[in-house]
């Protein structure tokens, strides 16, 4: 298994965003107070990550988890509300 | 002559770059509708500059950050472009805050209570949309919001809001039908729904923007330099002088009243205590009215 650490921050202030919905191909977690959600995933597959928070622009990317090593994914969310 | 519209569009803090671009299009609509307007953008979308023009408009349009009790303007930290305490300045006006978060929660009711014809805004957050690889959601946002503004200048406020809600519903249906193949359709559906469901007309839904029917509309688009120069143009200076003159006049009246009473009393007191020479006392009694009556006769 590979570890995927998804760290979510505000793109403007760079502060960590807690309680953000992170989905990786149907597996759902919310970020902790440090803005991080950690997934254990089988290697050798590509995954689509969706990060959702009502106040921020949606973030969706597909990444390749090639080997059983830790992967870091930084997500900088852009404010979407007035 | 009063301008018909005052347009304020902050542009620095995300996502006000988008509302600024939207207001460029609203400005075009104002021109097409032959309406006179003044626009302040970026740093000039501030309390200081706006308040010079605020009382003289019939329609006030704002697109930018806001909170329940205030429209922020460019200074989102102070967030005091217009606050609940300023509500009475909009008497008999129509106020439109779109896009702007939560303005209809506290500020809008206060403005209507203070005599505005109508306030159009949202009780909740308002979202921008962003273009993504699979679909140009931002273009949709421009389209549905401009549907609202196209109607605002020609229909009643209630009809404009209905047109806006219909347009959003059309896009929501589109996003719903693509939830499986557009990766960001889910968020955009929710955002559009939030924009639609929480937007309301406070006050008179039958209110319409009054038109004076100018054949040659005059427009004032203010960039930073033009805006700064507007602070020092003859008309602005005249207004400021009026205020200063009123203040000076009040101070003068008060000052003269105090001096009329205080100078003879103080001079008489000084003569009584022997702080003035005989010659000085004589001059004071002759020149200053009232001193002769107050000062002791040697």
Folded structure, characterized:
The complex is a heterodimer of chains A (82) and B (298). Chain A is mostly beta strands. Chain A has strands at 2-10, 21-24, 27-30, 36-41, 45-52, 59-65, 71-77. Helices cover 0% and strands 55% of the residues of chain A. In chain A, the strands form two sheets. A four-stranded antiparallel beta sheet of chain A has the order 3-2-5-6, with no helix packed on it. Chain B has ten helices and ten strands. By secondary structure, chain B is of the alpha/beta class. Chain B has a seven-stranded mixed beta sheet with strand order 9-8-7-3-1-2-10, with helices on both faces. Chain B has a three-stranded antiparallel beta sheet with strand order 4-5-6, with no helix packed on it. The chains are: A mainly beta (82), B alpha/beta (298).
List keywords for this structure.
heterodimer, A: mainly beta, Immunoglobulin-like, 4-stranded antiparallel β-sheet, 3-stranded mixed β-sheet, B: 298 residues, alpha/beta, Rossmann fold, 7-stranded mixed β-sheet, 3-stranded antiparallel β-sheet, 10 helices
SSE order and pairing:
The complex is a heterodimer of chains A (82) and B (298).
Chain A: E1 2-10, E2 21-24, E3 27-30, E4 36-41, E5 45-52, E6 59-65, E7 71-77
Chain B: E1 5-9, H1 16-32, E2 37-41, H2 47-53, E3 59-62, E4 66-67, E5 70-71, E6 82-83, E7 94-97, H3 107-113, E8 118-122, H4 137-152, H5 157-177, H6 185-197, E9 199-203, E10 219-222, H7 224-231, H8 234-273, H9 278-287, H10 291-294
Parallel strand pairs in B: 1-2, 1-3, 2-10, 3-7, 7-8
Antiparallel strand pairs in B: 4-5, 5-6, 8-9
Helix pairs in contact in B: 1-4, 4-5, 5-6
